[in-house]
Amino acid sequence: MPKLSHQFRASLPSALQAAVELILKIFSYYLIPIGIAVVSLIALVFWHDEYRTSGDVPLTMHVLADPAGTLDPASALGQARARALTNTHDTHLSEAPVWFVVEPMPRPGAQVLEFPSRHALDIACWNAASLAPLGTASRSDSTGLLSADKAGFALSVAPLPRQLLCRGTFAGPARLTVVQWPIEQYVLSVKQYHRKSGLLDGGMIVLALFILITALINRQPVYVMFAGWLILNLRVGALSAGWDIQWLGQAVPSEWLLRSRAVTFTMYGIATLTLYQALLKDHLAEMRYVVPMRVMQWLCMPMLAAAILVPYGMYLPLMWGILACCFSLMTIGLFKIIVESRTRVAAWFAASFAVTFMASLAEVASAAFGMRELLGVINSVTAALASSLLAALAVAEQMRMETEKRQEAQEELEHAYKAMPVGLFTLDIYGHFLSVNPALQKMLGMTDFTAGRTAWRQYFTEASWAALHEQVHAKVEAEMELTSRDGGQRFQVSATLARSRIEGVLQDTTEKHKATEQLRFMANNDPLTKVFNRRGIEREFSNASASLAAGRPMALAYVDLDRFKLINDLFGHGAGDEVLKQVCERMGAMLAGGQQLGRVGGDEFVIVMPETAIPLASIIVRGIVDRLGSTPYRVGDKAFHVRASVGLIEVVPGMPMKDAVSTADRACREAKTGTGDGLVVYERDADAFRQRAAELDLVERLSGPAATDGLLLEMQPIMSLRTPFESLNFEVLLRMREPDGRIVPAGAVIVAAEKSGRASVIDRWVLTSTLAWIAEHNDELVNTRFVCMNLSGASLNDERFVQDTFDILGRYVHVASRLCLEITESVALHDLDNTRRFIDQVRGFGVKVALDDFGAGYTSFSYLKELPADVLKIDGNFIVNINAHPANVAIVEAIVSLAVNLGMKTIAEWAEDAATVQTLQEIGVDYVQGFVVARSMPPERILEGRSSASFIQDAALLALLSEWDKPPTSHLASVTRLH
Known about the structure:
The protein is an alpha+beta fold. The chain contains 32 helices and 37 strands. The strands form 8 sheets. Strands 29-30-32-33-34-35-36-37 form an 8-stranded mixed beta barrel. A hairpin with a 5-residue loop joins strand 17 and strand 18. About 35% of the residues are buried. The C terminus is likely disordered.
């Protein structure tokens, strides 16, 4: 109980304070404004008006217009008296002088005659009885008893003459009246006039200043425009009340008065149109009033120029007509907006326009038709006050709507700030968090956040804060990567300096970083074995090659697993993959320092060994070969034995990796043949390097524009085994002459041409040169039945070369029948349909076709019937040692028998002795080619022989040919025996 009493006493002062604050708020927010309104209403209805006037009497008068302006007072007096009496006279915009005679009312006390027209420019009065002048007055000056007062003029004279003659000039829709006042009441009316004008000016100016200041504070241009519109509205109302002759208590110069009225009206119309469009632009865009609005906009500046340059009397009707049309369109548009959108801004603005429009119509009707009673209902003064109030309500409604939009945007921004999946934060210049969103708290595990106390350094390193602080001060937007203090997370931060605070965005990039690292690893490493892939090992080779310039050694090894394909074929790729992993583990265990292993094929690897001399590299690689093949690889319950062949080379400065790998691959292939017990080493001066350099040089030469420079043709005779002395047939062989005179054999040239992609260029040159030579020596080649020429496989698969071949044959069609194109069997069978089409087309020119190296392939016999060839050229491997291997005799005999049955001739190449020629003749081969007949020779020498046998130098073959000329009894017996 004592505890509860203590709590009650402690909370009582707070409750009392809250109650006092609530009462003060209710009093200030509600009671005071309501009290002021009630008291003001009572004062207006019941209290005495200190400025209420009485005793003013309108006087009648005789009025005479003087259009020519030539009448003198005496003439005008006589003519005016003849006119009827009237209380008012409207000038209908006429600026001609008006004479009028007034009879004041006899009243006791001092009297004042007032001429209240605000459109009067000047006035002069005379005593009608004596025509003595009483005074003159204008807007700038007065003499005698006349003076400018209130909106018009006043005559103060005692006693008043019985009759007065006056003359006045007017501008605009003037109405002439004369009012007689007791002097004390007139003075009171003057005070009332200035009080009302002061109230109107002061109230409107204060309101305009308030709106202007509000606009400047809130940076709202539309409210600046509204403030100006209020001032112009004040001047329009002042014109109606006759107060526009002064501004802020200062008299407007008379020469400015008429021009200022025209400019005021015009500027009021421009400001009204601009304000109208600014407040309702979204609604106007959806309506069909775009064209009228643009027309009104284009009229603004010309109207302003006319207000300055055109005389006032001419300008007024023009202005009234244009303003009436424009206000009508704008009012109709407003009501349409109200109907369609039901916006309160448009409603208040429509009411303001309606009041202004009605007041303007009343002014126009009053001026044009003399309907002055309308001004008693509504005029520019009441219109100015009412329209300003209604327009202020429209602006207030617009401000309310904009405030609500800003509040909604603020709420959405706060919601987005809290819901944003990235971390948002604000730091002071000392590194303390001023605000954080929930995402950042979650990222950093921030459980207890205190603005201004929770520091950056609690979650990141001091160095990261220093870097962030430096960057935001050095450039507009700073970006950097961060690591959490414990190193377990990575972040990307973007920050900028704003109002001495650091505003930033923090993203957790831990997973992205891991993925990037994984992608980077996969880009350079083999996904199965995790060692470098081709790209990665090339990069390592490039980095290691830099040490060669400093004279440090470097080696490269090419490793190929022997018969590894069998494991995949017999046991599946899963077993093969597991073996590859174990192979890489064993090789990796043998490497040290900067030595790197890379997988460049299915079962092929490259080892880059920087700063490793070739003797040490040989020891390491020998260890790898032994370790790979010494212990079986276990996969499940199976064990596999895998051996490797390795080619090791010493890398020289400037050697590209592709050349190094190619040379090491050559050494590896040599190791596979059994040489070197699984390892072949090429040191710096090895022949393989020179051969590789020569090959590369040749490839480069053939890749250039002068690929055929240095090419020449040689010819090797092909002898008939049936009539050796009756035909001169030969094969065209390609050679290349080096600059030093050496002759490069065809094999090296063809390999280089195929590697450089210029095989078709070489074959095109050979074909053209051969046919041109045959055509040139056609008369000397009377015993020549055919001239053989080889086509490379690359050329045969080149559509452009094939088409060029047909074009060349077409140019030499008269000798094309002597040409025999040799197509390698393996190339022919690679694309059988394409080969068949080519053979059919060249045979159309009379060209013969031979299948070269027949018997070297796997599918020769099954596809031979599909190829319409003329000649089978038997592979030389069956011929060179035919008598040493009886199987070769049987194979060649079978080929000959097949060719005979298919209607083809046979040519045996690589014949090197007379015994081979004799066996071939006995088997039934048609032609023979080889060193025993003749080696290749220049074309000019081939023309010296009558037949291919003319070039034989071998005595044994010559003797054999001599025996063939004898009766063939024994020969036929031997053939019978062979068959």
